[in-house]
Amino acid sequence: xxxxxxxxxxxxxxxxxxxxxxxxxxxxxxxxxxxxxxxxxxxxxxxxxxxxxxxxxxxxxxxxxxxxxxxxxxxxxxxxxxxxxxxxxxxxxxxxxxxxxxxxxxxxxxxxxxxxxxxxxxxxxxxxxxxxxxxxxxxxxxxxxxxxxxxxxxxxxxxxxxxxxxxxxxxxxxxxxxxxxxxxxxxxxxxxxxxxxxxxxxxxxxxxxxxxxxxxxxxxxxxxxxxxxxxxxxxxxxxxxxxxxxxxxxxxxxxxxxxxxxxxxxxxxxxxxxxxxxxxxxxxxxxxxxxxxxxxxxxxxxxxxxxxxxxxxxxxxxxxxxxxxxxxxxxxxxxxxxxxxxxxxxxxxxxxxxxxxxxxxxxxxxxxxxxxxxxxxxxxxxxxxxxxxxxxxxxxxxxxxxxxxxxxxxxxxxxxxxxxxxxxxxxxxxxxxxxxxxxxxxxxxxxxx
Length: 449
Known about the structure:
There is one protein chain. 11% of the residues lie in helices and 46% in strands. It is built from four helices and 32 strands.
């Protein structure tokens, strides 16, 4: 009887020592061990040699090492999944195996599996996650036979080690996702419009950029380098294509083709002032519409729009135009709502507030020979200027034949130095003289009658 008891104690001591595994000291890994991640990117599964080492004696195998069958590691997302397969072993005529398992203090369930090798008895599987690829873990195991032989001895510390040398270094790459909002450029298309004059363009539909959400997969290697690949993208706002109408209509006028271009500039209110009396409007001011001013290559281009006016039963307008003593081109144009509109075009290197001009009116010349050409002051109110686009005449646009000599200045540039008086003289004095003369003529006729 004494021999049997002694044999049990001795057997328990042997079993405890053989199933013990080594301690992994100073391992900096979180105590929490996650379960296997789902629905995350995963790598290949790598077989890694596994050993169960004595907890107290370095480099010494435990007899429990015989329970180790195989181990694998796989990266899932940014976690590492370890799988260890265990089997029962036979010792002292008894067959038993590990029935409980802890990793870093966390109990891991054992799962019965089917294994292809018939020599592997009662195979079970242990799965646990680690935030890093490690070659050793502190574990604890529980064996029922040990607990029966010596109560309290069933749970023992151990060291579970792996040989990860054959696992490729790329498995340590960190994978993350990055979401960005990006613009989608719009396209520009041009369509012909037969109702728009040739040489002109008009924006029919303004373009608008779209918006898309792009999800990138970012892989960060151990040396800090990153690579990005598009995982998915979705359009949150479709772009709106810009549509530009291009005119194809050919306008015939005076057996010539009227050529015009569209420019961006400012519409500036103007006044026609008496040349000799400051701030007094001329009667010819009624013929002034506005000025359109645009810049090109540092030069200001002035387009003065005028219309015919009716006075004393006569309808007439400006048929010749001078700026700073230089005759400039006067063009026939078509502007809805204006009576016989014309445009005088000239350029200057200066932004003018006022300029000295002269105008010629045929009716005044007929009434009073020599009185058709008069000086005036043309002023520009820049405080009320508005940004706009307009069609302006070119050298091919029909010009007004005013019936008066004097060649046009090429280009109509008026770069004279600032004059003591600059501006456009209205035809007010001329009109006033004409009114007086016509009144005298009418009065004389009445007396004769």
